Amino acid sequence: YGVAAAVKRVETARSQKEKTALLTRLQSEEQEGVVFKRIDSLYVPGRPASGGNQLKFKFYATASCIVAKINAKRSVSLELRDGGKLVSIGNVTIPSNQAVPPKGAIIDVRYLYSYRQGALFQPTYLGQRDDIEADACTTAQLKYKPEAGDDGDEA
Asked: What is the rounded end-to-end Cα distance, in angstroms, of the chain?
């Protein structure tokens, strides 16, 4: 099992048409993202300071959330409506150059995906909203991490 189980063959798209089709398909399958790499580039460990031969493109989603409480160290707890109840969906850090929103405020959060019955993965605070009501902040807006078997692979 070991290392061989962790190695996966990946699809290669060479033409612009193939790349566009792959990008569209991966987005529709709600995958995490795609990496575009120069086909003639060599493997170099680590990350370049800027640029480089690879471009990681993550498929982020956004959600409008209710601030449930203010935590220590510049973060807030988030919740959404699920039917008639409020459910916790984790926390988000508020950048030091932004004001911490008060309890009950509606904020926008960018995230990669949500775990079912869990929290947002890689949440980023985008800002406070004053143009929608708390009733619009529902779990229906979430993009969930595919479960094992959803795409034929293990999660």
From this structure: 16
- CA-to-CA distance for 113 and 135, rounded, in angstroms? 22
Q: What is the rounded distance in angstroms from the CA atom of residue 118 to the CA atom of residue 114?
A: 7
* Whole-number Å distance between alpha carbons of 78 and 93: 11
Strands (E) across the chain are located at 33-37, 54-58, 61-71, 75-82, 85-93, 106-111, 113-114, 120-121, 124-129
- What are the tens digits of pLDDT across the range 79-126? 999 988 999 999 999 999 999 999 999 999 999 999 988 899 999 999
Structure token digits, residue 12:
């290669």
Q: In the Cβ-directed half-sphere of 64, how many Cα atoms lie within 13 Å?
A: 14
pTM: 0.77
Residue 128: name the closest of 155, 102, 97, 154 by CA.
102
